[in-house]
Specification:
Elements (H helix, E strand, L loop, with lengths): L9 E5 L4 H12 L3 E5 L3 H15 L4 E3 L7 H14 L5 E4 L15 H29 L2 E6 L12 H21 L4 E8 L8 H4 L2 H9 L10 H11 L10 E4 L6
Helix pairs in contact: 1-8, 3-4, 4-5
Length: 254
């Protein structure tokens, strides 16, 4: 056994058919976990699960579609996971929404509510679905993928930043509530990562050059560079860490 051993642990990763979520799921599986690939559409999830099983052996990954805007769908995700793989040891709340770019004065109420519901309330629902089992077994790791947007303001991502700041507090509050039961809750705050979700922020060569120039490492990140933080937070290596945020941003916030 090593500090990063996840052998036979069961992990749910939302938004894991691509991008950061997929990278996290792949690395958790590499370290021994059984992973649940989940996003809105089943087929992309099945493709990712099949690739993981081909690399690490049959039964290492399963696919369960779930729309994070539906409380019932998230409960089904947890119930189906328990039925097929066993109790959930690791939860990674990665899926999120951002339907609007621009100043706060221009966002519609519907768009604002969607951001808050999908980025905060859905995490609350999912945590409440897995936490009772973790509490009963006196162990578990919950990881919320926030953003450095939650640590500072933005002229074009205000609602998203607000939701991600709320996720930081959600983790802190749940850490206080669940700590006595040996259930840990932490956040990862990525900087700009080369994903489809963030494409509007890096696809333009001029925007990419400007962002790279203000980043100490002089580049944006790749999805797999977030996965290591998730492995750490899921594993025994972080057993005395809870209620914290790991910033992985190439140095932007310093």
């Amino acid at each position: 056994m090593t500090l990063f051993d996840l052998k036979d642990k069961v992990a749910i990763v939302t938004g894991s058919s691509r991008g950061i979520g997929r990278a996290i799921a792949e690395r958790l599986a590499e370290h021994g976990a059984k992973v649940v690939i989940s996003s809105r559409k089943l087929e992309p999830c099945e493709q990712v699960a099949a690739a993981i099983n081909a690399k690490h052996g049959a039964g290492r990954a399963i696919a369960v579609a779930a729309n994070i805007s539906s409380k019932e769908a998230l409960q089904h995700l947890v119930d189906d996971t328990v039925k097929r793989l066993g109790p959930v040891d690791v939860l990674v709340c990665n899926a999120a929404s951002n339907p609007y770019y621009g100043p706060m004065a221009g966002i519609s109420d519907e768009q604002f509510r969607k951001v808050l519901d999908n980025n905060i309330l859905s995490n609350h629902w999912l945590v409440n679905a897995v936490a009772p089992g973790m509490i009963e077994r006196k162990g578990g790791s919950i990881i919320i993928v926030s953003s450095i947007g939650g640590l500072r303001g933005s002229p074009i991502l205000g609602a998203y930043c607000i939701s991600k700041a709320a996720d930081l507090q959600l983790a802190r509050n749940l850490a206080v509530e669940y700590g006595p039961h040996n259930v840990r809750v932490n956040c990862i705050a990525p900087g700009l990562i080369r994903t489809d979700f963030a494409r509007a922020l890096w696809d333009n060569p001029e925007l990419l050059a400007a962002r790279s120039a203000e980043t100490p490492l002089r580049r944006i990140g790749e999805p797999d560079e977030i996965a290591g933080a998730a492995v750490f937070l899921a594993s025994p290596a972080s057993s005395f860490m809870t209620g914290q945020v790991m910033v992985v941003d190439g140095g932007v916030t310093v």
